[in-house]
Amino acid sequence: MKLIVDANIPAAERCFGEFGSITRVPGREINAEHVKDADALIVRSITQVNEALLADSSLCFVGTCTIGTDHIDHAALAARNIEFASAPGCNAEAVVDYVLSSLLTLAERAGWPLLSRTVGVVGVGNVGSRLLARLKALGVNTLACDPPRAEQEGEQGFVSLDTLIDRCDILCLHTPLVKDGPHATYQLLNAQIINELAPGTVLLNAGRGDCIDERALRGRLMGKGDITAVLDVWENEPGIDAGLRDLVALATPHIAGHSLDGKLRGTWMIQQALARHTERPIHNTFADICPLPVLGSLHLQEALPVEDALRLCVRAVYDVRRDHDSLQRQVLQQGIRQGFDDCRANYPLRREFATLNVQLSGNAVALEAPLSAAGFRVSRMS
Fold it and tell me: Which of 4, 46, 112, 137 is deepest in the core (most CB within 10 A)?
């Protein structure tokens, strides 16, 4: 079996080596010639798996080690009887880590308490549901908007987008990109909505770039400048809007879900799917492919204000400012497109909050509930 695998997929040899020969290719460079005589293609989100790529291929299996599938032409796969698998939820915890790191950073910069704000989550899937759960556990007031789920499950627990925007200080977008139909998300936040956002609103998008009218957002930030934006996803990646990038408070290169744990989970999930397709047994577990974290534990001996303690522990694992600064630096050195891609291709090691055991003693035991709610493993020391 011949496998073409995105060069940035971790543990590929360990997870896919037993299926056959592996050829590693950078995701944006994978083309029809690579897959012409291949049996399986394993990608991430930057490879467009479409008619042009598949036309003369011999593929029988395509897997994407990502949550999203809008880079996949499902009709073209079905027409060729090519089995497809994705990894829903694989990096959801990492995206929630990203959101919490971002919001705690904005709160520190602006001097407002995060825990007293109302956060609206648009899109309550794998990421949105986990974000809501952590925020609620922290005691944050939350509202949820997900029209497809409200239609299927009933409106209880969901509000309309207009209601959410009207009542929330912070808006977090975690929707897939849907271009047509009654629940289309393409430019969900259009020019009218963006222009009507209340002053002081924080807008965070870690879903899909095309869900926001970026031209309108840039105009609002350049004009009134009275809202704050955090963008991890952009229109026209990697050729993102340089002007908009300079105006947002935190600008990162589509890396919200790029924890090592999330990537490895995606690889492992596609390994399972390929094993089912080929009817081969799996010889490793997810734990087998996960290395130990560099920082395994942190000991707090005295109490801190809750949000200070959260920032301390969050930044011990992941500090979003590093990724913002990295994008700014690489863009200056290499230009927008190359700088954006270089940040992704050479992304530094990052683990998830759950890999850190926060040990508490003395007065610090009062922090057990909020630290657990944020996603850390917490234990008491005598």
Answer: 4
